[in-house]
Write a structure and sequence with these properties.
With 273 residues, this protein is mainly α. Helices cover 76% and strands 0% of the residues.
Length: 273
């Protein structure tokens, strides 16, 4: 008897299976939208796909009357700038501190408990404090992403360093490598693939912190636009923006996955995604 756990779909079948849930959700939405519009022509909760497409086209092509900028482009640029800067700073902190905690017992004994405690603080609870300390400008939004992501990266990389076989570190020292050389030649090459994987896992929370901070205090950005039009029940704007944010997150995740496979092919086997 062939067990279900041993059935592996082919490439074409895998693509069809991946698309199937999206097609089902799309059909459900189209039917629900048509039913609500038939009952109430002025319904705003589930706008037709054609109406959302028209609104999205207008936002992506027509300049705003007040600013002269293309709304979707300006919002996307503002949000991505904050996101990339926050992730970059968090990555540097995570790599440096995580490596130190994993390789240096003194650093782990001194800073390990602090990092563990900080990682338990809900970042959103700190948002009012960040606005008070750093103001309502760009810095507070970037700092929120850093605070939300860096502790996770630090702990994850510290565990990855600790998982490196002790024999490798001993051999490096036996061959005369200093601590710094051991980090560069033995530790970093093995944890960099894990760093990219950790970044991929952090994208969801990073977008959450970004949208939340923009919703509260911003004059541009994807989160700002969504919460600006919510008072008008403009679902024809909100839903395309949510879809666009999802697509951006997917593309960033895909780019990181390609980077990891291209730069560290040795860390991936046939069945791993």
């Amino acid at each position: 008897m062939r067990r279900a756990m041993n059935i592996a779909p082919g490439r074409g079948t895998r693509l069809l299976l991946a698309l199937l849930p999206f097609l089902i959700l799309a059909c459900i939405y189209v039917l629900g939208s048509a039913e609500r519009r038939a009952a109430n022509p002025g319904d705003k909760l589930l706008p037709p796909v054609a109406e959302m497409a028209d609104t999205a086209t207008r936002l992506a092509t027509e300049p705003d009357r007040r600013t002269g900028e293309i709304t979707l482009v300006a919002d996307t640029a503002a949000s991505l700038q904050r996101l990339v800067l926050g992730l970059a700073v968090a990555t540097l902190i995570g790599l440096a501190l995580g490596t130190a905690l994993g390789i240096l017992p003194l650093a782990d004994a001194t800073l390990g408990p602090v990092v563990a405690v900080v990682s338990m603080i809900p970042p959103m609870a700190l948002l009012p404090i960040l606005f008070i300390v750093f103001g309502l400008g760009e810095l507070s939004k970037v700092v929120l992403i850093v605070i939300g992501i860096a502790p996770f990266l630090v702990r994850d990389l510290a565990l990855s360093v600790g998982a490196i076989p002790r024999e490798q570190l001993i051999k490096a020292q036996t061959l005369g490598a200093s601590t710094w050389q051991t980090v560069l030649r033995v530790v970093l090459p093995q944890i960099l693939p894990r760093l990219i994987e950790a970044l991929r896992l952090s994208l969801g929370p990073a977008f959450l912190f970004l949208i939340s901070s923009e919703a509260i205090a911003a004059d541009s950005g994807l989160g700002y636009r969504i919460f600006l039009v919510r008072r008008y029940l403009a679902m024809d704007v909100i839903l395309p923006y949510v879809a666009w944010i999802t697509l951006l997150a997917f593309l960033v995740d895909l780019a990181l996955a390609r980077l990891a496979r291209g730069a560290f092919a040795w860390a991936y086997d046939e069945g791993r995604r």
